[in-house]
Amino acid sequence: MKKLLYILLFFQLSVQAQQILFVGNSLTYTNNMPKMLAYIGNQQGVPINTKSLCFPNYAIIDHINDGKLQKLLAKKQFDYLVIQQGPSSQAEGKRMLIQDGATIRALCKQYNTKLGYFMVWPSVSYYHTFDKVIENHKSAAQQNNALLFPVGIIWKEYNTYKDKESLYSLDNFHPSTAGSFVAALTIFHQLYPTKNLQQLPFEKYKKWVADEDSFNLLVRLVQKQ
Predict the structure, then answer these.
(1) What is the CATH number of the domain that holds 117?
(2) Which helix (H) or strand (E) holds 181?
(3) pLDDT tens, position by position, 174-191
(4) Is 158 within the bounds of a domain?
(5) How many CA atoms lie within 13 A of 53 on its CB side?
(6) What is the DSSP letter of 202?
(7) Is 8 part of a structural domain of the chain?
(8) Is 170 exposed, middle or buried (0-12, 13-18, 19+ CB in 10 A)?
(9) Distance CA 8, CA 4 (A)
(10) Coil, helix or strand for 107?
(11) How far apart are CA 21 and CA 187, in angstroms?
(12) In a domain, 1, yes or no
């Protein structure tokens, strides 16, 4: 009887777990950010299953053209599809975010999946384009009636504080583990806004954010979004 109850409980949790597909490039797969999201969910009692379809230097159009995304959607049901490409601060990048995002949105509608945009950040050398990165992602999400995960907004605000752990890795573009953590936490908060992030214990996340003051600041900035 006890074994049967365990089986039923496992089945119930599996059914209720959010299925999230990440479609992007190395800004998503660096540090295995989707698995960080699943870990945060598990710690908060929210089962999340993630899958990544991410390849180096891919834009949204590359995923559309190679056909792997369409085949995957035909085989497996996802609750959310989160798309990500480069910073896209220029006019061509904006067009790609909107038009290629619309193609993905049509696929999502076909498979009853919610579309979301993972807003990224520019490299340090192109930091002056940050406002356009934010603006173009906002426009794309609005025009395609999609969720917006405003990682870039939090990233930019965090960088106004001095002497904090860097969100950039050594190449000044890809995320450090702290950068990937704030991306995962932002996505989690947008999906589950009623969860109180202020209760997150630093000890369980210091493998990604080593400095406690930096961790607490990131949590505060995400919580207020």
Answers:
(1) 3.40.50.1110
(2) helix 177-191
(3) 999 999 999 999 999 999
(4) yes
(5) 20
(6) G
(7) no
(8) exposed
(9) 6
(10) helix
(11) 12
(12) no
Q: Six-digit token pair at 17?
A: 């777990």
- What local confidence, expressed as pLDDT, does residue 5 receive? 42
- Give the chain's residues under pLDDT 70: 1-16
Instruction: Evaluate whether residue 122 is within a structural domain.
Output: yes
Q: How many residues does the chain have?
A: 225
Tokens of 88: 């896209």
54: closest CA among 33, 29, 73? Answer: 29
Rg (CA), the chain: 18
The strands making up 114-118's β-sheet, listed across from edge to edge, are: 48-54, 18-24, 80-83, 114-118, 147-149
Task: Map residue 142 onto helix, strand or coil.
Answer: helix
Question: What's the pLDDT score for residue 8?
Answer: 40
Q: How many domains does the chain have?
A: 1
- Cα–Cα distances in Å, from 159 out to 24, 81, 145, 176? 24, 28, 29, 14
How many whole angstroms from its chain centre is CA 216?
A: 20
Q: Where are the alpha helices (DSSP H) in 148-211?
A: 151-158, 177-191
CB 192 within 8 A of CB 170: no
DSSP H helical segments within 17-129, as ranges?
26-29, 33-43, 60-66, 68-75, 91-110
48 within 8 A of 41, measured Cβ to Cβ? yes
Give the residue numbers spanning the domain of 196. Answer: 19-223
Helix orientation angle between 91-110 and 68-75, rounded to the nearest 10 degrees: 30
pTM: 0.91
Tokens of 62: 């590359």
Crossing angle of helices 151-158 and 212-223, rounded to 10°: 130
pLDDT of 107: 97
